[in-house]
What we know:
- By secondary structure, the chain is mostly helical.
- It is 66% helix and 0% strand.
- It contains seven helices and no strands.
- It has helices at residues 2-19, 46-60, 64-87, 92-113, 123-149, 153-157, 164-167.
- The chain is globular, with a radius of gyration of 16 Å.
- The two termini are 22 Å apart.
- Mean pLDDT is 86; it is low at 163-174.
Amino acid sequence: MYIVKGAVIAGLYIGLSMLFYGISFEIVQFRISEILVALIFFEPAALPGLCIGCFITDLLGPGGFYDAVFGTCATGFGLYCVKWYCSHNGKAPIGLALYAFLNAFMISLELSYSASLATDKGVLVIFLWVLLGEAVTAVGGGSALYYLLRKRWKDIVGETAKSEEEEFIPTTLQ
């Protein structure tokens, strides 16, 4: 079931990115699929699902393989940091803001050094544009999705299997 849930999340990420293709790439990007980052709080399969979805989306985009590798690394690192932060009693909206900042920073470095955008745009300008898109989608939309699903996730999806990390934590600490 873990693989199926991850595949569904990857498919949703790809589908939303392709549906809104015109605003999902380049410097000014409002990748609507970034709203799904909020699923990291509910579903262990969200981490690989979002990374695979990002990889395939970026392969299909104008940046090709280069963007797929670096974009997926940025997404994976950002998601891992969110999981770490929230496992230490961090709040979800702040975790999503952390994700947005880290992702915007890494993506701006990638975009500023790619051949098509290395002209007159500085890293700071690219960072601010990407951060704006991440703030709207991952933080704004992701927070809304988080609060919408917070008490309803088990009713919608059913009991979520424990992640490998949770299996080793005694139930009294969970």
